[in-house]
Every structure is written in C-alpha cells, then in structure tokens.
Design goal:
The chain is an alpha/beta fold. The protein has 9 helices and 19 strands. Helix 1 crosses helix 9 and helix 3 packs across helix 9 (332-349). The protein binds flavin-adenine dinucleotide.
C-alpha cells in the first residue's frame, strides 16, 4: 500500500510512523520543517481526561492515547535515540474560589479511572508539594500520572522512526493539488512535480487542511485558533499547574512556559501586547515570584480547531482513497499516538479498534 501524507506536524508524522510500522510505503510532504507550526508552539502537556465535560467518544480517545504513551516513548527512543523529554511529573489544578474548590474536591472523589488517582491537597501539604504557589490558593487537586514532553522532538522522533522503516519524508515540499486518473485520485502535486501511484492520500495539514479539501469540494471546517505563550527562565515550579485563567509548565530545559490564549483571529500567528500582559498577570497570580521575572521569549501558534471541538478524522465523503486527520485543537499532542494508530488501521484494513464514526468528516457534509 502506497500512502502520501500532506503535512509534517505531529499528526502527519504520527500517521506516517504507524503506517510504516505496519509495512506501508509512506511519503510525507511538509512544506517547511517538521513540526514548524502548532506542534512546536505547543506546551506538550499530556493530561488524562479528568471530568466528563467532553463527549464520551472524545474521552475514550484521550484515555486510549494517554495509555499508549509510556511504551511508545520507549519504542521511539530505542528506534531513533531521541529523548522526547517525556516526564510524568503530575499536574496541579489549584482553586482560588470556594466554588472551584468544591467542584474540584467532588471531581477528585469521583475519579477512579487511573491507578494513580487524583487527590485533593491543601494547606501545608500543598505548600510542601509546590512551595512557590500563591498562599491565597484554597487547595488543589494533584494528578501524579499526568505528563509533559517536548512536542517538536516527538514529531521528529515519529518522522525519524518512520524514515528508518523506509518512509520518504520530504521537507520543504508543499502539497499543491491532486492528480487524477479517470474518477480516481492517484497522485498529488508536490511543488511543480506530479507524484503518482498512490493508493491513499491523507490530508493532515493542520488548519490549512480546509483549503486542501476544498479543492475536492469537501467541507473540512478546521479553523486556526491562535494560542499565545511565553517562557520565563525559571525553575521555581516542579509540576505543571493549570489554574482557572491559564497554565504554567516547567520544562527540562530550565524554562517555565505560561499559556495560553485561545483566539479566533485567522492565520495570524503572532503575539500581542495584550495577550502577553494577560499571561504575565495569570502567572504572577499563581506564582507571585514570577512577578519579578523577565519574559525570556514569547510565541504564538495556530491550533487546528473544529466547530464541535472534536477532531476530524476519517475518509472523505464520496472519495474512496482520500483521508483527513485534523481539528485536534488543544489535544493534538495528547491524541497523536491514537490518531496515528487508528488512521493507519483505517487506511490499511478499513476497520479501526476504536470507532472513528463520531469524528468522521461526513458530519459536516450537508
Ligand atoms: C499555544 C499552544 C499550546 C498547546 N498545548 C498543547 C498541549 O499542552 N497538549 C496538547 O495535546 N496539545 C496542545 N496544543 C495543540 C497541538 O499543538 C495541536 O493540536 C497539534 O500540534 C496539531 O498538529 P497538526 O499536525 O494537526 O498541525 P500542525 O502542527 O499545524 O502541522 C501541520 C503541518 O502541515 C504543514 N502544511 C500546511 N500546508 C501544507 C501543504 N500544502 N503542503 C505540505 N505541508 C503543509 C505545515 O507546515 C505544518 O507543519 C497546543 C497548541 C498551541 C498553539
């Protein structure tokens, strides 16, 4: 089976890896560098779903992907030598109001899905866990199993491991159109060249996927959702902290990320003074010591959104051999392994071990 994938973000690279592992002949077209867009901008948090705000199918997908990680990381590292900086350091969700404290306590009691569990901590226990947090916080939940990693390294490890299994990863080559033979699409335009002889074509170009699918008159309504982030050079925190206004994530590199805005402003991947000021204020409220810290860098990325907040994955309606995988919004790093696995199953066998129907692009067809 010969498959070509448009897009070398974490999603395109994960699909390439799982397909190559299953013996497919894979080509990836990435118009720039691997992971150059949302994937690199990401905080790289891997958080198992905690409450039931998401749909049942989304929660199932998140849990399945979360579980795939520990073994996958070992495999990728042994195949490529790349340490993707995966660390299950745990996540603290603090409460600054009685209402939120009550909500989090109730949730913590209810959560039974992970062996490690989720516990409520307050007072000296919370100070001991994370001494730099504001004294004004009423308490927090702590989920020790939640993890983070370096998302750009993850995408490069997927790509590298796929290459080791024979995949052709073309950097600096844009997908510019489809090539057809009769009614069937058999190839793609890559820059000025035609590449032919493919059995399947996968569109995984983040928020640019919408324009690619429009060439086939198919709706894949993923919109760019900007996220601004900044980094302090600080080792003041030992765990990720997700408050009501944003999050702080300590990285192995010695930086502390603060994120993120969620803005619907088109394809404008830049920071704004308001966005950065908001993140600084949020960071200072959670960790007062950060009020005196200088911002070391700031950046923005465009998450692939979707109208219902769920990924868009599956075969395109009325197209036998064209597939799409996008719309992962705030969960693309978490969901990359399960996306790679399920898309590979779908393309190679037409069946998937977890149903993909709820995520099908057909839901936007009418
Ligand atoms: C600030 C921020 C924080 C985030 N934090 C987290 C987090 O903590 N945890 C989490 O799970 N998720 C997080 N996300 C979301 C996650 O980063 C995205 O869901 C994920 O990176 C999407 O991956 P992708 O491969 O679909 O898209 P992208 O990373 O955007 O990749 C698409 C690729 O396609 C390429 N491309 C586009 N058009 C073409 C073309 N015509 N031909 C060839 N190539 C093309 C682009 O160059 C790009 O490299 C965050 C996102 C942001 C912005």
């Amino acid at each position: 089976m010969k498959v070509v994938i448009a897009g070398g973000g974490v999603i395109g690279c994960a699909i390439a890896y799982y397909l190559a592992r299953a013996g497919a002949d894979v080509t990836v077209l990435e118009r720039g560098e691997i992971a150059q867009e949302a994937t690199s901008a990401s905080a790289g948090m891997l958080i198992a779903p905690f409450d039931r705000t998401g749909s049942r199918s989304m929660v199932r997908l998140q849990r399945a992907s979360f579980k795939l990680y520990p073994r996958l990381i070992k495999q990728l590292e042994s195949e490529t030598g790349i340490d993707v900086e995966y660390r299950p350091r745990g996540l603290i969700r603090p409460a600054s109001s009685e209402k939120r404290a009550k909500h989090l306590k109730t949730l913590a009691k209810r959560v039974t899905h992970r062996k490690a569990g989720v516990e409520w901590v307050e007072g000296s226990d919370l100070r001991h866990l994370e001494p730099a947090l504001s004294d004004e916080l009423l308490g927090a939940t702590f989920s020790p199993g939640d993890a983070d990693l370096n998302p750009a390294l993850l995408a490069r490890a997927f790509a590298g491991a796929a290459e080791k299994r024979g995949a052709d990863i073309r950097r600096g080559v844009a997908f510019t159109g489809f090539v057809s033979s009769g009614h069937k699409l058999t190839g793609v335009k890559a820059g000025s060249a035609d590449l032919n002889g493919f059995d399947a074509i996968v569109l995984a170009a983040g928020p640019w996927t919408k324009a690619l699918a429009e060439r086939l008159s198919v709706k894949v309504p993923t919109a760019p959702m900007r996220g601004q982030m900044l980094a302090y050079r600080s080792t003041v925190l030992h765990h990720a902290v997700w408050g009501e206004e944003g999050y702080l994530v300590p990285k192995l590199s010695g930086f502390l990320f603060a994120g993120a805005t969620v803005e619907d402003v088109g394809f404008r991947a830049r920071t704004t003074s308001d966005g950065v000021a908001g993140l600084r204020a949020m960071a200072g409220r959670l960790v007062p010591a950060l009020r005196r810290s200088k911002v070391a860098s700031e950046w923005a990325g465009l998450r692939p959104g979707s109208p219902d907040g769920m990924p868009i994955m599956g075969r395109l309606p009325k197209r036998d051999n064209v597939y799409v995988a996008t719309g992962h919004f705030r969960n693309g790093i978490l969901l990359a392994p399960v996306t790679g696995q399920l898309m590979s199953e779908l393309i190679l066998s037409g069946k998937t071990s977890i149903p993909l129907d709820p995520f099908s692009p057909a839901r936007f067809a009418s």
